Amino acid sequence: xxxxxxxxxxxxxxxxxxxxxxxxxxxxxxxxxxxxxxxxxx
Length: 42
Hints:
Shape: elongated
Strand order of the largest sheet: 1-2
Radius of gyration: 20 Å
Number of strands: 2
Oligomer: single chain
Number of helices: 0
Helix content: under 10%
């Protein structure tokens, strides 16, 4: 395997390809509903 050094290497960017595409991020919020005794996801 052609891996970087664990101390000084880049362990985040492991692909050789450079991508101009931006990464998309999202989050899921869940709240507990006491009346129904279940989570409500928005």
